[in-house]
TrEMBL record:
This is D-3-phosphoglycerate dehydrogenase. Pfam families: 2-Hacid_dh, 2-Hacid_dh_C. The lineage of its organism: Bacteria, Pseudomonadati, Pseudomonadota, Gammaproteobacteria, Oceanospirillales. PANTHER family: D-ISOMER SPECIFIC 2-HYDROXYACID DEHYDROGENASE FAMILY PROTEIN (AFU_ORTHOLOGUE AFUA_6G10090). Belongs to the D-isomer specific 2-hydroxyacid dehydrogenase family. One of its GO terms (molecular function) is NAD binding. The keyword NAD applies. Keywords: NAD, Oxidoreductase. CDD domains: PGDH_like_1. Residues 111-283 form the D-isomer specific 2-hydroxyacid dehydrogenase NAD-binding domain. Residues 5-306 form the D-isomer specific 2-hydroxyacid dehydrogenase catalytic domain. The keyword Oxidoreductase applies.
Length: 306
């Protein structure tokens, strides 16, 4: 079987133990993102099985119409918002998805909280340049951690906050509110109340039609000038251009983000803002998670083909 793996930026898949599952098959691995459907289709001539790494490439009618040999798409993790499932059905392409692990994303979230609160990227660069203690950070103990969406990742982050001596305030759908009450956590009166009261606010929502743009300019304007917004979920949860404008206006005072509307992002005016700590979508990018994701994806692909 001819199999293609897209968007392996670090050329890491071939180094995984899970890659041995594809022994005996012709495997193409691409290390960049090709956005032009015609050019991408030319790469994938004759491909029967396609393995996608998270949500890096859009699969739609324009692409599928050029891939008559494609039979199965196997998605690492469970998110498939970038796949037009109706178009796949029309073209007889089966879509299979795996499961995710919450720990790596939760850990990266907390790394961004600490880095943003204590200006760690700036101070690392200051020290390398011979500058000593140029910023004044903020402690987390005694402050309020806001969690927007108490799912698997949000629940872990809430526990990290408690370990640091923070009080935890939750908002989200009824399921999030019920889980918060069951865990003895405070529930905000409303979305606006969450943004007004949180010193550190972490977004942990799935992206769908209901949550796209759910955070607006008025929400961020309600945050304190000393407040911090952390987003390791999806950039599109915030309205287009809203976060950049809010940071320029100083509410919230700082932000740590791991996700962007267009990825990979190599240039953007927001990246130059001094009150932004940004990472290139690293939440799930670590070996244990990759082994789990790709083992599932390869097993699902081979099972579907059989």
């Amino acid at each position: 079987m001819k199999i293609a793996i897209l968007d392996d930026y670090q050329d890491a898949v071939r180094t995984l133990d899970a890659f041995a599952r594809l022994a005996g098959h012709e495997v193409l691995v691409f290390n960049d993102t090709c956005r032009d459907p015609q050019a991408l289709a030319e790469r994938l001539v004759g491909v029967e099985g396609l393995v996608l790494i998270r949500e890096r490439t859009r699969i739609d009618e324009a692409l599928l119409s050029r891939l008559p040999d494609l039979k199965v798409i196997s998605q690492t993790g469970g998110g498939a918002a970038h796949i037009d499932r109706q178009a796949c059905e029309r073209h007889g392409v089966q879509v299979v998805t795996g499961t995710g692990l919450p720990h790596a994303a939760a850990e990266l979230t907390w790394a961004l909280v600490l880095a943003t609160a204590r200006h760690l990227p700036q101070e690392v660069e200051n020290l390398k340049a011979g500058r000593w203690q140029r910023t004044l950070g903020a402690a987390l103990h005694g402050r309020t951690l806001g969690i927007f969406g108490l799912g698997r990742i949000g629940s872990l982050v809430a526990r990290y906050g408690q370990a640091f001596g923070m009080s935890v305030l939750v908002w989200g759908r009824e399921g999030s509110q019920e889980r918060a009450r069951d865990a003895g956590l405070d529930v905000a009166d409303s979305q606006r109340d969450l943004f007004e009261r949180a010193d550190v606010l972490c977004l942990h929502l799935r992206l769908n039609d209901d949550t796209r743009g759910i955070v607006g300019a008025e929400d961020l304007a309600a945050m304190s000038p000393d407040g911090m917004l952390i987003n390791t979920s999806r950039a599109e949860l915030i309205g287009p251009g809203v976060l950049e404008a809010a940071l320029r206006q100083g509410r919230p005072g700082r932000a740590g983000v791991d996700v962007f509307e267009r990825e990979p992002l190599l240039e953007h005016p927001m990246l130059a803002l001094p009150n932004l700590v940004a990472t290139p979508h690293l939440g799930y990018v670590e070996k244990d998670t990759y082994e789990r994701y790709f083992a599932d994806a390869f097993d699902n692909l081979l099972a579907a083909m059989q």
